[in-house]
Write a structure and sequence with these properties.
The structure is a homodimer.
Chain A lengths: L1 H12 L4 H8 L6 H5 L17 H5 L7 H15 L10 E2 L14 H11 L8 H5 L2 H13 L15 H15 L8 E4 L2 H12 L5 E7 L3 H9 L3 E6 L10 H13 L3 E8 L11 H14 L2 E5 L16 H7 L9 E6 L13 E6 L3 H12 L6 H10 L10 H28 L3 E2 L8 E2 L2 E2 L3 H9 L4 H13 L1 E2 L1 E2 L12 E4 L7 H19 L2
Parallel strand pairs in A: 1-12, 3-4, 3-5, 5-6, 6-7
Antiparallel strand pairs in A: 2-8, 7-8, 9-11, 10-14, 13-14
Chain lengths: 524, 524
């Protein structure tokens, strides 16, 4: 029954993510173009919101949007007066930023980074006492891999060759299939890599990119910024955010019938915000679909280390496509990886890479050129990207402690995911799929009619209304579902599983109390 | 006489930097669209050079273009066989990348970075013996400025507040005028900041940006990628690359008459590739021009520390505009700064900032949103950007050694600039303006008719032909002038002043011998 309602909505609205915005504009986001047209045209400023790039104006990025600005203001108020609110701190569950919530960096990685930042340490005897032997050895290797040992030089536009060799070896070990270091483009995190591919593929608003709904808003933002068209495909909440090929086909045909030339399919696995981990046969079907339809498969695999259920395993789309017998000339595949996620969570280092396969040499040259126009990604991030793909091995001095740190973080994330999921499922009118992977839960909240009306009165989307109420009452920051896209008429929010384990009970209590009060206030 | 010839050419070609490309396409760069249309349309690849974003295809970035690819191939050949060529190494003078040519990083900066990368060091007693006292103190300050001491977390989209406060204080000290930390946007180097502003300002090919010719190709590349129109203004080589307001007015009127809406003026000071340092009264006239014409002044000030002549001083455009009495509501000004240049040359750290003043709050919000779509710049680069704006002070333990390192680099750059300039001016048919600042010389080469014909026969631009010959004969990599733009019919190349001082005599000898042989071969 949910499905037929969804289908009805799709028929009405399903033209692009625009529907997601429109749906909310009526409540919450007045069209920027409309609301700003009321500004005086004799502004003293030559640049106004009316005369900037309209694609910038249209772009939305909810995970750092209105709710975060509100949280920052509350935080300032708390700093000025600790008694300003009924809570004593803001808990940022809006973004996958583990270290901001107390996760400690992996010691080995930081040892190596420090030595590479100040290689003079490598020659000093005191260093032996301060650093593990394998971190010193690794730093020597890395510094030697950098041409001229120039740790402060621009690198090759794709990144330092030796680091790309290491990453390629790591991918080979992960997948059991060959990887060419020339296919690796090191980037300042996954976001610039995604922007780079959108810039390459999108020619006009007639070019479409198939994106899951719900999706991580990087995709919608990037498509909008580059003037393209988001073609949504819906993940099925009822089957644990399942990805159905029939839905892909339907949406593709629908887009084609509207004159949209669909260039690529974005798949996020493990899923953000949904937390689902794709089954291997599902991945095969996706590869086959992209192959048959001539679509570039943009595989967002930044959560590849974050899988929390024994029955699921991460398989890269590269491995899946190679295991199907498809080689470099058969399928266009870009895999995105980042140092920001996994067990390391080094968001601030802005490191990552994309592995680019299946493009002709002349197109590869164009990707290289776009990379060159930013010279290179940061070397610290490059080094870290090579480290996460080649962590300490059995026999290395750091191996035991590294595995202990890694294991503690991943098992704690598993515990936290489960605790929060269970708590959410106990709330009245809330259902929440399991986080099989990634760093998020995306519960559905069934809001009473009275709450929806109250939201309308505040010109707010119902889910944004709920999230703002939650923030003001508890200091917990979550992101309304409309930022990710959702079946019209349904409401969700995204909450990270990242607060430290000992904080979870208190968060659950605050959330539960808030929700109960909210429902008491608005129950129909 | 040069001028009248130039004027004639301008009349013929002066529609945008397109002329620079057209001029060279006939020799050297077959139109990508044309040359690729001969490719089989039944390519096995769904993505081809014919169906990617044409703006990507059109974009050119000469400093990492054909000549660098050729150099990389020569280097590989040398690695395989040290006797493969008549020289034993490649000397990369194509890009301002000081540490790749042996410049050592500033010790204090690297000490601080290492401590921030691995803050556990701060608690250990051995650290006192390994690091200077003020680097330890500074690292403590920095770590304390990072919310939750989370050195691996995403920061605020504009960068860490405390670091922006430090940078703002540094700007105030430099300029003697107030600076608001909220105007600072920390970025992964200056390039992404320039891209961000182009993305904001350019709506269509009818939007123009006034750029100096010659210019740093980041500007032409970014304008092309964002679908805008480069409106050239010519620097006058005869007067040391002087910037004349009459030329700005003429080009602006010309662009307007063609229906181009000019949004901004880019000024590079000290100049790249020209090395000129603008005089303060010239800067005042530029500010007044932008103010009167409602143009955003994009001030590329990344070489602010690199001034080599006593008669010139760097003045920021912010200081100049404030000293004219223009405040935040009077002129739109964006100043770009980078950790890659100056005396530090930390290119690989990808740090920098832009100071954004004179924009309305709603436009500021849009800039914030674009910054958010990449989450934040890398924290190492952020820290370094704060350090270059607040280096050690009198009384700090590192002060003397810091000043000695800084002084040695800057005075050596002065010596190198002068030595190379003098050597170039001795070459037959070559004239070279003084490098008053920045890191480059941009000599004009008068090529014999026979050389131009030989270049034509190779379908190469004459300056590219010369540069390739130079590379093949000496291993020295310089960039042909067409990558920067030049008055049609004139030929130049850009050469950095960055090889280490003890290497300069050998480079001069090799260059001189090559040039003489070249002229002997082609002299009319």
């Amino acid at each position: 029954m949910r499905k037929s309602a969804a289908d009805r909505f799709r028929h009405l609205f399903n033209r692009s993510l625009v529907f997601v915005r429109n749906q909310n504009q009526q409540y919450h986001h007045p069209s920027p173009l409309r609301s700003l047209s009321s500004m005086a045209s004799d502004s003293p400023f030559p640049v106004t919101a009316q005369n900037i790039n309209p694609q910038v104006l249209k772009c939305q990025y909810a995970v750092r949007g209105e709710i975060v600005t509100l949280a920052q203001n509350l935080q300032k108020a708390l700093q000025a007066n600790p008694d300003a609110h009924s809570f004593d701190e803001i808990i940022y569950c809006n973004i996958g930023n583990p270290q901001s919530l107390g996760q400690q960096p992996i010691t080995f990685f930081r040892e190596v980074l420090a030595l590479c930042d100040y290689p003079a340490l490598l020659d000093k005897s005191e260093t032996q006492g301060l650093f593990s032997a394998d971190s010193i050895e690794r730093a020597w290797q890395l510094v030697d891999q950098i041409p001229g040992r120039a740790t402060g030089a621009y690198s090759h536009s794709q990144g330092i060759q030796g680091l790309r060799d290491t990453i390629a070896a790591g991918i080979e070990e992960r997948d059991g299939f060959p990887c060419n270091a020339n296919d690796i483009f090191l980037t300042d995190g996954a976001s610039p890599a995604v922007h780079m591919m959108m810039q390459l593929l999108i020619r006009s608003e007639k070019d479409g990119i198939l994106c899951p709904i719900p999706q991580y808003p990087l995709y919608s933002a990037s498509i909008t910024l580059h003037g393209g068209h988001l073609v949504p495909y819906y993940l099925d909440e009822a089957t644990g955010w399942g990805l159905e090929i029939s839905e892909l086909k339907k949406q593709l045909e629908d887009a084609k019938s509207k004159g949209i030339s669909v260039r690529a399919l974005a798949a996020i696995n493990p899923g953000n915000p949904t937390g689902q981990v794709l089954a291997e046969d599902n991945q095969r079907a996706i590869v086959e679909f992209c192959k048959q339809e001539g679509l570039v498969l943009l595989a967002d695999e930044v959560y590849q280390e974050n899988v929390y259920v024994p029955e699921k395993k991460f398989h890269s789309f590269k491995k899946v496509s190679r295991s199907m017998g498809y080689g470099d000339n058969d399928i266009c595949l870009v895999s995105f990886q980042s140092v920001s996620k996994g067990y390391h969570g080094e968001c601030g280092k802005r490191g990552g890479y994309m592995e680019v396969t299946g493009f002709s040499p002349d197109v590869r040259e164009q990707i290289y050129k776009v990379a060159s126009a930013n010279l290179c990604s940061n070397i610290t991030g490059q080094i870290l990207a090579s480290l996460i793909m080649s962590p300490p091995k059995v026999g290395d001095e750091s191996y035991e402690s590294f595995m202990a740190e890694r294991g503690a973080i991943l098992s704690s994330l598993t515990t936290r995911a489960k605790a929060l999921e269970e708590a959410l499922n106990k709330l009245e009118g809330v259902t929440c799929n399991k986080a099989e992977g990634a760093m998020y839960l995306f519960p559905r909240i069934r809001l009473p009619e009275k709450a929806i009306k109250a939201a309308e009165a505040e010109k707010s989307a119902p889910d944004a209304f709920y999230c703002k109420r939650l923030l003001n009452a508890t200091g917990i920051v979550v992101v309304p579902g409309f930022g990710f896209g959702q079946v019209p008429g349904t409401w969700h929010f995204r909450c990270t599983i990242l607060p430290q384990e000992d904080r979870i009970p208190a968060i659950v209590t605050r959330l539960t109390e808030f929700h109960q009060k909210f429902m008491d206030e608005f129950r129909d």
